């Protein structure tokens, strides 16, 4: 099958709205110096997410009207979430990096495109991702040398296999710099943009309450610690090249999406509780354990993991509102990167145990134990790059996202929720991305998985065997 053909129709920049347009007035020069939590991401910039709207499943306006409304509402949203309209800059005199939110940033790159040969209905409905199509529907940030973009947008008309009458639709692709936003901030932005686009005035007050000053993330060491992180991970600033090993072979991975319904989650929780005394798993712990066990069993059967090997599951926690993290706690209104690392460990033999649900219970105990540790000392593993660098990547599951991220509910731009939303940047064999499922999922969870193509079917068999 020929790869999808994407044609760029126009490329412009969208600036934050001026005060007369309902926006806010910015100071001539507004700089937010990156915290140590931000600085780790300076060479790992990309969060790419694609929202697919199927014309056959909703009343989408004409494409020109869609583009115009998205452009205008983006401008209004940027006026309140100003780091997204800025640039990440290097300050050579001090060694800092900062988000420059001055009017000189030039706005957000806004790409309008058309894609032939991609059926929106199939793209939204297939469990297996059309990896090439998803990749082409998301913009790439210009971020390898500072000043770096903080965000870019691509709006693509999907012509479908037979034109507008069959398989047509619209894709909204967003690329955001991870030094500027974490997952929670991504969805806060999308929710605000979508509300502005559909004319919901209530979003303005909430978006206006967002705070951006990284000084609120009062990690011991402050600015000097952040400079040390920059020297360690990006010693050649303003050059901030992404390490090749993180993206090499990414397009060769298979990606598949599973929707886990509430009754299935409920049954899994009870199975874990019955098999493990003292373990009362949350939805996140339950699904993390399911994915971890399925991954380890798949790799064990393939001879890539031995009984005596240690295996790991990595995930992030949000430190907003956690008094145990910093004093005073970071406000829930903080818009930025505010996450710390967690690493659960177990012996492979315990997770591949064939005795009932012993493997699932062992995984849940390890994950829940790490969640409890993180609650007591959230910043103990804040330098997550160093943490992950100490474990073999071929025995690691990387969990990202959250079961609470409103990936469908938050993204109604006025023509209904997307038929599909996916994170494009899945770089690792064994990466799992969680978001709340679409309304049709009945309050369940969407889990998207990247695996070696030869092992995806085995992983699916393991994963679905627990769901019944």
What share of residues are in beta strands? 15-25%
What share of residues is helical? 25-40%
Decide which structural class fits the backbone. Answer: alpha+beta
Mean pLDDT: 91
User: Which stretches are poorly predicted, pLDDT < 50 over at least 5 residues?
Assistant: none
User: Do you know the CATH topology of the largest domain?
Assistant: Chloramphenicol Acetyltransferase
* Individual helix count: 14
Sheet with most strands: strand arrangement: 1-6-8-9-3-14
The CATH class of the largest domain turns out to be Alpha Beta
What is the end-to-end distance? 34 Å
**Overall tally of domains:** 2
Rounded to the nearest angstrom, the radius of gyration is 22 Å
Q: Can you identify the CATH superfamily of the largest domain?
A: Chloramphenicol acetyltransferase-like domain
Per the principal axes of the C-alpha atoms, what is the gross shape? globular
The CATH architecture of the largest domain would be 2-Layer Sandwich
Order of helices and strands: EEHEHEEEHHEEEHHHHEHHEEHHHEEEEH
The number of strands is 16
- Major β-sheet annotation: 6 strands, mixed
GO molecular function: hydroxycinnamoyltransferase activity
Organism: Leersia perrieri
InterPro entries: CAT-like_dom_sf, Plant_metabolite_acyltrans
Pfam family, one: Transferase
